[in-house]
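testing teh design pipeline on a random one, pls ignore if ur not involved
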C-alpha cells in the first residue's frame, strides 16, 4: 500500500467531542480514513491534498462555519464541504450554500443520509472539475465527436437532434433514466448554442429543501424571512442571457410550479419577499427520469407546465439499449481513470468483456463507471478479468444483473426492474447501499421503488 493510501481522506471539524467520535467511528466503518479537529485553525492545518471531503460544523469556538468555509476554500477550492448546523432556519443554510458549501444537514441527522450526501457531493465535484470535463468529453457519452462516431443508431440520432436543438432557442426537455448523461448533454447543448459565452447554471430540484428552493431559483429580498439580512440574486438572475438547467424537474414542489410556469410564459418573476417584477432571458433546459405525463395524470405535476417544458424533447437511451457502444465506453472510461491516477491504462480479457456485455446496467453509465473504478482500484495487473468483475456485479454464470436469454424474452423495463429488485434485496433493503452498488443517487432508489411499486 502506498503512503498516500495511508493518509486521512476525510476531515471532520466539530467542537462537540461526542459528535466527533460518532463521525470518526461511522467514517471508518464506511471505508474512509478520517481525521478530526475541534477548531477551525486546526482544521485548516489538517486540510492536506489527500483529503477528499470535509464535514464542517457551523458553530466553532474560533468562528462560525461560514468563516471557516471561506478559509478552507482558499486552501482547497476543489474539496467538497458538507455543513452541519443546529440552526433550523433558511438563512443559515442559504449563507452556507452561498459561501460555497456543497450541501448542509441540520442536527440531529441520520448517518446514512450524511454519508450519502458526502458521496454525491464528491461525485458532483469530480464531474464539474475542468479536468474531469475535458476527460469526459473524450468519451462517447459526451462531446460532439464522441456522439457523432457512436456505433448505436440511437446515439447517432441523438447527436443529430442535439445539434439542431442547440441552434433553436427554445425550451428543451431531456428524458431518460438516471445515469444516462442528461447533465452532460445539457452542457453540450449550451456549448454549441449561440449562448455559449454566457453562464450555464445548473439547479438540482431535489437537492435542496422546499423552503430553500424558491430562494435558490428566484432569490430573496432583505427581510423576506427571519435572518434574511441581505438581498440575494436567484439562479434565474445569475443565468442572465445564458442557460439554466433544471435537473429532476419532476421533483419540483407543487407550490413552485405556477411560478416556473410564469417564467416560461412571460419571462417574469418576483424575488421572495419582493414586489418588483424582474425579467430573465435565460434559456431553460429541464431534465427528468420520471414519466411526467403519469405525474400529470396523478395530479403531481401541472399539465400546462408540462406542455410548456415539452416544446422539444430529447430522449437519452439507456445503456442496455445501446450495448454496441459498450466497448468504446469501457476503453474511454479506463483511459480516464488511468490518467487521473497517473497509471497505464487497463484492458479487459475477452471473458470479462463478455460478462459486462451481458449486464442490464440499471444504473446506466454511472453504474459502469462505478464498477470500473472499483475493479481497477483492487486489480493486481493491468488486465482485468472475470474475477475482478464478478464480485462487483454479484455475478457468477447466472449473474443477478445478467440479460435474459432469448428463450425467455422480457421487456427492457422488466429486465431493469428485476435487476433493481435483486440489488435492493441483496443489500437488505438498505437504500444507501443499493445506490452505492448501482452507482446511482439515493434519491433515484426512492424513485425506482415508487416506479416499480415496491414496498
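output:
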Amino acid at each position: 500500500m502506498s503512503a498516500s493510501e495511508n493518509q486521512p481522506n476525510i476531515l471532520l471539524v466539530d467542537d462537540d467531542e461526542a459528535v466527533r467520535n460518532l463521525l470518526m467511528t461511522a467514517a471508518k466503518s464506511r471505508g474512509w480514513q478520517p481525521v478530526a479537529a475541534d477548531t477551525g485553525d486546526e482544521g485548516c492545518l489538517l486540510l492536506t491534498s489527500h483529503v477528499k471531503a470535509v464535514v464542517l460544523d457551523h458553530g466553532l469556538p474560533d468562528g462560525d462555519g461560514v468563516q471557516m468555509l471561506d478559509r478552507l476554500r482558499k486552501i482547497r477550492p476543489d474539496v467538497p464541504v458538507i455543513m452541519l448546523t443546529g440552526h433550523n432556519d433558511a438563512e443559515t443554510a442559504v449563507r452556507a450554500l452561498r459561501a460555497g458549501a456543497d450541501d448542509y444537514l441540520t442536527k440531529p441527522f441520520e448517518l446514512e443520509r450524511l454519508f450519502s450526501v458526502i458521496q454525491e457531493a464528491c461525485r458532483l465535484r469530480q464531474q464539474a472539475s475542468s479536468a474531469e470535463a475535458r476527460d469526459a468529453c473524450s468519451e462517447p457519452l459526451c462531446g460532439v465527436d464522441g456522439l457523432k462516431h457512436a456505433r448505436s443508431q440511437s446515439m447517432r440520432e441523438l447527436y443529430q437532434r442535439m445539434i439542431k436543438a442547440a441552434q433553436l432557442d427554445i425550451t428543451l426537455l431531456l428524458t431518460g433514466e438516471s445515469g444516462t448523461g442528461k447533465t452532460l448533454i445539457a452542457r453540450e447543448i449550451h456549448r454549441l448554442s449561440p449562448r455559449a459565452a454566457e453562464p450555464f447554471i445548473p439547479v438540482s430540484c431535489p437537492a435542496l429543501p422546499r423552503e430553500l428552493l424558491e430562494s435558490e431559483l428566484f432569490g430573496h429580498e432583505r427581510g423576506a424571512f427571519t435572518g434574511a439580512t441581505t438581498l440575494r440574486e436567484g439562479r434565474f438572475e445569475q443565468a442572465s442571457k445564458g442557460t439554466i438547467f433544471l435537473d429532476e424537474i419532476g421533483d419540483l414542489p407543487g407550490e413552485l410550479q405556477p411560478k416556473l410556469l410564469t417564467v416560461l410564459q412571460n419571462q417574469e418573476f418576483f424575488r421572495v419577499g419582493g414586489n418588483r417584477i424582474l425579467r430573465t432571458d435565460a434559456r431553460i433546459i429541464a431534465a427528468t427520469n420520471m414519466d411526467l405525463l403519469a405525474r400529470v395524470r396523478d395530479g403531481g405535476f401541472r399539465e400546462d407546465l408540462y406542455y410548456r417544458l415539452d416544446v422539444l424533447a430529447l430522449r437519452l437511451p439507456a445503456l442496455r439499449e445501446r450495448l454496441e457502444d459498450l466497448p468504446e465506453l469501457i476503453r474511454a472510461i479506463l483511459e480516464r481513470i488511468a490518467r487521473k491516477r497517473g497509471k497505464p491504462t487497463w484492458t479487459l480479457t475477452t471473458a470479462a468483456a463478455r460478462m459486462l456485455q451481458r449486464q442490464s446496467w440499471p444504473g446506466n453509465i454511472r453504474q459502469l463507471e462505478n464498477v470500473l473504478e472499483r475493479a481497477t482500484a483492487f486489480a493486481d495487473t493491468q488486465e482485468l478479468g472475470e474475477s475482478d468483475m464478478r464480485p462487483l456485479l454479484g455475478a457468477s454464470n447466472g449473474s443477478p444483473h445478467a440479460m435474459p436469454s432469448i428463450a425467455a424474452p422480457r421487456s427492457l423495463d422488466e429486465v431493469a426492474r428485476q435487476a433493481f429488485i435483486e440489488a435492493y434485496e441483496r443489500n437488505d433493503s438498505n437504500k444507501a447501499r443499493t445506490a452505492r452498488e448501482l452507482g446511482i443517487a439515493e434519491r433515484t432508489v426512492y424513485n425506482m421503488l415508487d416506479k416499480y411499486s415496491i414496498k
